[in-house]
Amino acid sequence: MTDTRDLEKLTQFEQFIDQYYPSIFAGVQKLSGPADKLVLEKLTVEIFVDLWENSEELFTPLRKPAFVYKILVKHVVEYLKKQGNDAQLRILQNTLLIDPEQFA
Q: CA 66 from chain center: how many Å?
């Protein structure tokens, strides 16, 4: 039988998805540059899976926005590296002042 805490955590995460899916999808779309909508949706789902796997940190109230942003950028950088999209990586590096190698 599922522990009440687990059920509460799952409910909280479902609410998080409902509330933040559009924003996270838009962030992925903006940071990754032109891409097929299906690719963007897959990347967004991968971000939510990563967030769920790290939900203890996600639900720490003081760090939620920074943590979500870090995970989002990590997945976008990994995607761009796989695609060999060095131009978009340089744009991110110069715009966000990040080092893509820190996400290796």
A: 11
For the chain, the domains span 4-103
Q: Which long-range contacts (CB under 8 A, 24 or more apart) does 25-30 make?
A: 27/69, 27/72, 28/72, 28/75, 28/76
pLDDT digits (tens, 9 = 90+) for 18-36: 999 999 999 999 999 889 9
Provide the 3-class DSSP secondary structure of residue 87: helix
Determine contact, residues 71/101, Cβ cutoff 8 Å.
no
pTM for the whole structure: 0.84
Q: What is the dihedral of CA 98, 37, 54, 10, to 10 degrees?
A: 150
Q: Could you read off the pLDDT of 70-89 as tens digits, one per residue?
A: 999 999 999 999 999 999 99
